[in-house]
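Quick one, tokens below. Sequence please?
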């Protein structure tokens, strides 16, 4: 029976791959080995070399020191499933239709590993898939010859049903970050050395609830967590803040009632940092293997997070919104044959760029339908004159997490404009050069009226050009998390700028 299942999976995999059109190969381009490490909820500044006050990440620091730090990397939707779908397709959420964590991937969706398979790559996936379809879905997906995954978010420590390995459920044996690394290394060691490889290591970490490896527990118990300035619930901090943001303080995703509990956000953050240490260990093990095989110089290694995470900024926790801590992610790239050590890429880069970058590294011309662009020229130190000058961000309201409204945003290298949909509230504009914490909303500033109109026009132009002028509607899925605590944060007052006074015309 096991042999029959295995043969069926292999047949299905090759049948799907054969239906994918082969992309044009650049003459003389040699396919490069690719290792992609994706982490969950890893915010852009939770790395040692970013002058973190206590977190130590020597292996991630080494990636940046020996390769490139993509300093302005963002996701176009700060939520697990939409972001992962954008990574695999090079498309916006409104294009691939995986707009939340509950709805499945539409039939016929093509993932970039399918193109790599068709081009002769051996491909493997290890870890969290969780891309549409709710909390189940651990079955092998198109584009991968080898598959190791788990249902939903998975668990840090062993529980049933364990792991799905090429269609068969096997027990999880240990701490998930370490075990996924073991599986990846075993596959790499047994690969066909005559073919290029693409290995996708998709960690559960550092998704909540944060559980550090036993060897890291308590590492930062004496560290000092400094609450971000925008966490304060003062008249000054509330000035210009949208009502929904103030009201979310007392909710599932707010600091006054986090996850409907008495959670201490500072202790939570320290546990997050401890949980991240095993990811750093994993990167070190993978890089050591590449070095031992003589592949470190030629292999393109890319590390990034699927979205950020707020720990008190604006009184919020979690992600979804368009604030920097939510949509900005770490991205590191290492390949000495491509990029000089210590390279810093300053251009705006998106999760949409991952797919075309890896296809480019394989010597293939990415499909024109992809919205992203290869960042290989940036890694080589080039500065294309036509590189994007703004990013589009989108998030669509979820009934099971109703605290955060639907929104679109434009993020340039200096400004951010956030446009809300379906809520009676104020929009937002920030000058990130003078106000990196996004504390002063300039939306009602007369001096910025023309800028707001220009950014709004860019936003709608981008949506029109990509088929995004709609708001998706699906059946209710997932339980509601819509409670407030009677003794905590008060409801927001209506913005004074939106109140008509007696003498107003």
């Amino acid at each position: 029976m096991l042999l029959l299942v295995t043969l069926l999976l292999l047949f299905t995999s090759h049948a799907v791959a054969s239906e994918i059109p082969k992309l044009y190969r650049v003459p003389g381009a040699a396919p490069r080995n690719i290792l992609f490490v994706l982490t969950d909820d890893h915010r852009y500044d939770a790395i040692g070399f970013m002058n973190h006050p206590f977190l130590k990440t020597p292996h991630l620091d080494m990636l940046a020191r020996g390769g490139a730090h993509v300093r302005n990397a963002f996701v176009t939707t700060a939520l697990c499933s939409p972001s992962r779908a954008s990574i695999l397709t090079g498309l916006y959420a409104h294009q691939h239709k995986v707009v939340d964590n509950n709805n499945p991937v539409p039939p016929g969706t093509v993932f970039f590993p399918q193109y790599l398979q068709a081009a002769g790559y051996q491909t493997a996936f290890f870890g969290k898939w969780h891309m549409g379809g709710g909390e189940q879905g651990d079955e092998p997906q198109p584009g991968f010859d080898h598959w190791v995954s788990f249902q939903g978010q998975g668990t840090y420590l062993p529980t049933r049903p364990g792991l799905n390995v090429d269609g068969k459920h096997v027990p999880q044996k240990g701490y998930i970050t370490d075990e996924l690394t073991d599986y990846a290394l075993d596959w790499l060691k047994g690969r066909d050395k005559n073919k290029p490889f693409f290995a996708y290591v998709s960690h559960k970490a550092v998704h909540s609830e944060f559980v550090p490896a036993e060897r890291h527990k308590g590492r930062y118990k004496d560290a000092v967590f400094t609450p971000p300035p925008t966490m304060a619930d003062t008249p000054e901090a509330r000035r210009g803040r949208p009502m929904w943001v103030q009201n979310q303080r007392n909710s599932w995703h707010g600091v006054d009632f986090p996850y409907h509990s008495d959670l201490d956000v500072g202790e939570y953050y320290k546990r997050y940092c401890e949980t991240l240490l095993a990811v750093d260990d994993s990167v070190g093990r993978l890089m050591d293997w590449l070095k031992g095989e003589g592949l470190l110089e030629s292999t393109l290694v890319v590390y990034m997070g699927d979205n950020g995470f707020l720990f008190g900024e604006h009184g919020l926790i979690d992600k979804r919104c368009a604030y920097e801590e939510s949509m900005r992610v770490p991205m590191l790239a290492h390949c000495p044959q491509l990029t000089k050590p210590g390279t810093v890429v300053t251009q705006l880069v998106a999760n949409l760029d991952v797919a075309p970058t890896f296809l480019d590294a394989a010597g293939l011309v990415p499909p024109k339908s992809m919205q992203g662009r290869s960042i290989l020229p940036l890694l080589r130190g080039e500065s294309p004159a036509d590189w994007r000058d703004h990013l589009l961000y989108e998030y669509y309201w979820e009934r099971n997490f109703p605290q955060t409204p639907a929104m679109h945003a434009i993020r340039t290298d200096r400004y951010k404009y956030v446009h809300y949909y379906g809520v009676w509230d104020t929009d937002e504009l920030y000058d990130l050069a003078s106000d990196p914490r996004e504390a002063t909303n300039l939306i009602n500033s007369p001096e910025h009226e023309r800028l707001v109109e220009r950014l709004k026009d860019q936003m709608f132009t981008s949506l029109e050009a990509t088929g995004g002028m709609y708001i998706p509607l699906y059946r209710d899925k997932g339980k509601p998390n819509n409670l407030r605590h009677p003794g905590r944060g008060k409801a927001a007052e209506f913005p004074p700028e939106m109140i008509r006074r007696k003498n107003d015309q």
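The first strand starts at residue 34 and ends at 39. Confidence is low (pLDDT under 50) at residues 1-18.
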